[in-house]
Amino acid sequence: MDKLAIVILNWNGAKMLGQYLPTVLNYSRDEAVVYVADNASTDNSMDLLRQEFPECKTIVLEKNWGFAEGYNKALSQIDAEYYLLLNSDIEVTHHWLTPLIEFMDVHPEVAACQPKLLSIFDRDCFEYAGACGGFLDRYGYPFCRGRLFETVERDDGQYDYKEEILWATGAALMIRAKDYWDVGGLDGRFFAHNEEIDLCWRLRIRGRKIYCLPESYVYHVGGGTLPKSNPMKTFLNFRNNLTMLYKCLPDSELKHVMCMRWFLDYLAAWETLILKGNWGDFKAIFKARRAFARWKKDFKADRETIQQGRVETQIPEQRMFSLLWQYYAKGHKKFSDLK
Q1: Which residues contact 290 (CB under 8 A, 6 or more apart)?
Q2: Are 138 and 321 in contact, with CB atoms under 8 Å apart?
Q3: Of 48, 43, 42, whose CA–CA distance to 17 is shortest?
Q4: Which secondary structure element, helix H or strand E, spans residue 210, and what is its range?
């Protein structure tokens, strides 16, 4: 069994692999085995790996399973104590793994952790997808230390301390293999987006802990699969976020939150059309609501299993305020402003 397996899920990402895989191999080879799991790419990804990175192990999947199920398929073929799910557009740094491994080794109650994510385009700023550790508000809106909605902070060391969080970013997620499989891994039905939040929330419900360890830091390109304004991304985010809420919210919160989200989602749809003229995202939100209504019944058994295994009644990292109110009404644009 390997101590740590770094697994990069790739789909037509030869350019990213060529640019960023060398840092992963150079700064990780002494502490981890590096895998690239390929989601049936049609570019020259596999040729590139064979010719330029023969030391990197590969797993070839027969079709594009998406992010969630692609990782499930790949990780089922790897025997390791820890997995580290890593995006192909991550530039890692010297000794980045040491703080993560040492912390996990001495804290068996911790299921997963992440490094600090900084932007590769502005190295003094946090990166959107995870920043310095993730949280949720009462209504399921994700936010991070260093990022609220579209506002991304400069990194001035203000969050350079270990912090218990609700979710660790899927861009650089280290997790115990046992914990990963104990909760069934990522939900493959999500395909992509919100799947790591769903996974971490299920772990927190069981009493397992998630941390951000900013002593370790990496640089992330971000948006490597779908651009931020892509209607498909909007569809997946809304559909999967609603599904995650249905699965994970306690009975005492479910009805209220889902009613509020009905109102807030349609408000968001009309805002994108009227104020931004974005017809694609407007339609994507309506489509996501309909898709959630159609497949909600398929997750009834999941909800029952999750609630039966509940250890934590109220999870502190799901904050019981409305992020929309904090951000737009009170003008709180930084994590440190939130009350």
Answers
A1: none
A2: yes
A3: 48
A4: strand 209-220
Give the integer Cα–Cα distance in Å for 322 and 311.
24
Q: Which residues of 121-138 are buried (b: 16+ CB within 10 A; e: fewer)?
A: eeeebbbbbbbbbbbbbb
Name the nearest CA neighbour of 204 among 248, 149, 236, 172: 248
Q: Is the pTM of this model over 0.85?
A: yes
Burial of 35 (0-12, 13-18, 19+ CB in 10 A): buried
- Give how far Cα 157 sits from Cα of 40, 71, 134, Å: 40, 33, 17
pLDDT band (50, 70, 90) for residue 224: very low
Please tell me the least confidently modeled range out of 214-223, 282-291, 292-301, 321-330: 214-223
Distances (CA, A) of 257 to 80, 204, 245, 251: 39, 19, 8, 10
* 13-36 tens-digit pLDDT: 999 999 999 999 999 988 999 999
3-state SS, residue 91: strand
Percent helix / strand / coil, the chain, rounded to 5:
45, 20, 35
Rounded Cα gap, residues 198 and 244, in angstroms: 6
DSSP letters, 119-176, are ESSSTTBB-TTTTT-EEE-TTS-EEETTEETTEE-B-SSTT-S-EEESB--TTEEEEE
DSSP annotation of 209: E
Pick from 42, 50, 43: which is nearest to 21 by CA? Answer: 50
Token pair, residue 321, equals 């305020």
List the beta bridge partners of residue 33.
5
Per-residue CA distances from 98 to 193, 201, 213, 331 (Å): 28, 25, 11, 38
Measured distance CA(7)–CA(87) in Å, rounded: 8
Structure tokens at 243: 């599904």
Phi and psi for 26 in degrees, rounded to 5? -65, -40
Largest CA distance in the chain: 56
Cα(32)–Cα(29) distance, rounded to whole angstroms? 6
DSSP letter at 318?
B
